[in-house]
Amino acid sequence: MSDLRTQALDDFRRRCKEQGLAFTFQRQVIYEAVVDSREHPTPEWIYEQVRQRIPSISFGTIYKNVKTFLDSGVLKEVTLHHGSLRLESNMTPHHHLVCSSCKAIFDIEESAVAPVQLPKTKLPAGFSIKQCRVEFVGLCRSCQTARRKRSEANSGVIRRRR
Ligand SMILES: [Zn+2]
Ligand SMILES: [Zn+2]
User: Fold this and answer.
1) pTM of the complete model
2) Which of 107, 115, 126, 154 is the most buried (most CB within 10 A)?
């Protein structure tokens, strides 16, 4: 187990304790799946991983635990407005790069982005800001490669074999 992973798990255990959540083996396995993915996984993906270690677990149980994690704040949801639920295990403030094709989400440290400023006068009356999230949308490397290959195929480029 890497130090980072051990540390993430320790942090998680501490956050659970603070929130009065029992730190069960099941919850540990679910959390480890989230941490290991580094990909802001969906509950469905987590289910596939956890099932390999706890074959008897149901998707409902996974989903219920994930909801409990989110409600108590021990895990975060990536964005509130996206159609599917994506989980965040990186609890330090950061921003995201989102691939518009495969929906992969990459973290980018907060300090890499110039301070985002929003003058109070531009806010709708009474709106109070709790957090700032910046999302950069683009294409990840594998989607770019796939597109290039597709367009090459379409334009009839033939790769000659040696
Ligand atoms: Zn992609
Ligand atoms: Zn993230």
Assistant:
1) 0.68
2) 107
